[in-house]
Amino acid sequence: MPLYEHVLIARQDLSNTQAEGLIEHFSTVLVDNGGQVIENEYWGVRTLAYKINKNRKGHYAFLRSDAPSAAVQEMERLARLHDDVMRVMTVRVEKHEEGPSVQMQKREERGDRGDRDRGDRGDRGDRPRGDRGDRDRGDRGERRERTERI
């Protein structure tokens, strides 16, 4: 069966237990339709990048599943109809990553950004002096005289 990862965003005014109950509800939908939930994570309340249905925050939940496409479609259909769920995103993956998701890992454990050298600017070179560099009116020519309008 194909492997999927799902992210659900629920309304911010739910309690933590209600949000975790939503995870269990959608997990049972997948299991009832012939799939299995490999792992689920509750990411907590997070700030949204933009308002969704007048909400600035939402409860995030993450599911890893091994289910047929019919089960995933049914779960998405029910999630979109559910009043407490604001957004659903499902992605098909080749294999599930071992361990916790990137959102749940500590910054020290990620380690993929620590080796950057901030001093080198690569092939861009150094910036010229001043806030505009060599573009400071030199390439625009002289200003025209304004004609007075009455």
Automatic annotation (TrEMBL):
CDD domains: bS6. Signal peptide: none annotated. The keyword rRNA-binding applies. Residues 91-150 are annotated as: Disordered. It comes from the Bacteria. Transmembrane segments: none annotated. Keywords: Ribonucleoprotein, Ribosomal protein, RNA-binding, rRNA-binding. Pfam families: Ribosomal_S6. Coiled coil: none annotated. SUPFAM superfamilies: Ribosomal protein S6. GO terms for cellular component: ribosome. HAMAP family: Ribosomal_bS6. NCBIfam families: S6. Binds together with bS18 to 16S ribosomal RNA. PANTHER family: MITOCHONDRIAL 28S RIBOSOMAL PROTEIN S6, SMALL RIBOSOMAL SUBUNIT PROTEIN BS6M. Belongs to the bacterial ribosomal protein bS6 family. This is Small ribosomal subunit protein bS6. The lineage of its organism: Bacteria, Pseudomonadati, Pseudomonadota, Alphaproteobacteria, Rhodobacterales.
